[in-house]
Amino acid sequence: MPVITNIDDLKRIHRRRVPKMFYDYAESGSWTEQTFRENTSDFDKIRLRQRVAVDMSGRSTATKMIGEDVAMPVALAPVGLTGMQHADGEMKAARAAEAFGVPFTLSTMSINSIEDVASATNKPFWFQLYTMRDEDYVSRLIERARAAKCSALVITLDLQILGQRHKDIKNGLSAPPKLTLATMANLATKWRWGIEMLQTKNRSFGNIVGHVSNISDAANLSAWTAEQFDPTLDWSKIAKIKEQWGGKVILKGILDAEDAKMAMQVGADAIIVSNHGGRQLDGALSSIRVLPSILDAVGDQVEVHLDSGIRSGQDVLKAMAMGAKGTYIGRAFVYGLGAMGQAGVTRALEVIHKELDTTMALCGETKVSNLGRHNLLVPKGFEGDWQDCC
Predict the structure, then answer these.
(1) Which residues contact 282 (CB under 8 A, 6 or more apart)?
(2) What mean pLDDT, rounded, does the chain reach?
(3) Is the N or the C terminus of the chain less surrounded, counting Cβ atoms within 10 Å?
């Protein structure tokens, strides 16, 4: 087994083992990919304050996210097509998260269904909901998540209209992959991935196929999906979904202080500062750069989490020290999954945990709850000196 010391080690193996269209799906943003790049590069601008001669025994990274105990303030983010990165990918990632003691969030656009993941795990997971035009389908999806005993509903707000990702169009992204000459040539070099895929029946969108009428093949599924994201989603619809769910709700895709206030007004249990990993509005600010203004707007009235750009335990620490109460990893766990299946997801979590624990100690802290701006050196004007829009 190769020696894995950081997330980039897993990324390199992932690229070798997974078909190009699915690697590119994970490792891409919309349009020029400016926001995708800055999600990570902006973390690099924040520096850490080293402290010494502090008793570092008895350290703990344990905390809570929406009242649930977590081994560290990291959840696995909802990622579509995870089951195309590795056979039965969602089930394997969920098992790794459960064993490690962190939340797993299942995407609406998963390959393994809600029921598949529930059968593979013992503890409740979170379910991410895309709002669709087909309200009956959405209602049934919510009921399926309730039946699976999901402990939180994560409603994504920033995908009413699909941002253009050039690589997906050029690769002809589909699940299962369409067998063009280019695709077949690439698949021929990914024999390990292919053998594993042949051993599972799950190769299409498990939460859709069999649950929507007139979906008989990949073409029908692609057409249905492209037309289904609801452009009319507004706060009243979000409130209605929250009422229907009746449990804990996390609103994902907040990048503006005014939207954060609205999310608080509809009674969100938590909000996720996120730009969809740079996959929607290219040119938007990075999540870490926006985080302070969101926290200023809502204070401690709602739990604020951060997604987009986390690639290390140091990134987790920086987000927590800036004021977040939790973080999410998407690409970081997908690299591990594509590289080594469930063991790779576990390794990604181990790497991030070790980096978080070591960095916390060198910053003079023994608990993540004690992290704060006093641990950071944030450059002047980090949020940007923008002209007032009004």
Answers:
(1) 29, 30, 31, 32, 33, 34, 35, 36, 163
(2) 95
(3) C
Contact between 195 and 83 under an 8 Å Cβ cutoff? The reply is no
Active site residue 276: yes
Looking at the predicted structure, is the pLDDT value of residue 225 above 80? no
User: Which is more confident, 265 or 214?
Assistant: 265
Of 42-46, 59-63, 219-223, 271-275, the one with minimum mean pLDDT is: 219-223
For the domain that residue 159 is a member of, what is the CATH number? 3.20.20.70
Residue 215 has pLDDT above 80, yes or no: no
Residues β-bridged to residue 127: 106, 153
Cβ(150)–Cβ(108) under 8 Å?
no
Q: Confirm if 175 and 147 have CB atoms less than 8 A apart.
A: no
Residue 265 lies in a domain: yes
Query: Could you give the CA distance from residue 320 to residue 324 in angstroms, rounded to a whole number?
Result: 5
In a domain, 241, yes or no: yes
Rounded distance between C-alpha atoms, residue 172 and residue 183, angstroms:
9
Strand, coil or helix: what is 250? strand
Domain that holds residue 74: 7-377
Domains of the chain: total: 1
In a domain? residue 2? no
* Residue of 276, 305, 353, 374 with catalytic role: 276
| Residue at 284 is within a domain | yes
Are 128 and 117 a contacting pair, CB within 8 Å?
no
Q: What is the pLDDT of residues 357-367, one digit of tens each?
A: 999 999 999 99
| Nearest alpha-carbon partner for 105 in 61, 74, 135, 132 | 74
Q: Are the C-beta atoms of 96 and 349 separated by less than 8 Å?
A: yes
Compute CA 379 distance to the chain's CA centroid, rounded to the nearest angstrom.
Answer: 27
